[in-house]
Amino acid sequence: MRKAARRESATAWLASGAQVTVKTYAKRYGVDRYAAREDLEAIGFVFAPGDTRWSVRPEPVPRVARADVDTGQDPQVCRVGDRLMFVAGYTPGGAPYGCYADELEDPF
User: Which of 28, 44, 25, 46 is nearest to 36 (CA)?
Assistant: First the structure.
């Protein structure tokens, strides 16, 4: 639902006398609580004095690239169980994937 249609629907919802909070608005319209607070302010919802929750979105946290994280493992070879593996990469959970040395014709 687009912003204009969502706000029009929310105005009718407020007029119906239903108990509306930032949380219920966010759940009903599938938006985050910051967008819900912004929409409720735009349609004239009156918040309690001093209630500033969800009014300012926090700054994004910079993320470290996965390739820059040192896992302490040799990036090309590792042991999985009792088998030697040539690592092609790592899954998002950190598990290695690649080819086992005994599956290759000439590993060295």
Answer: 25
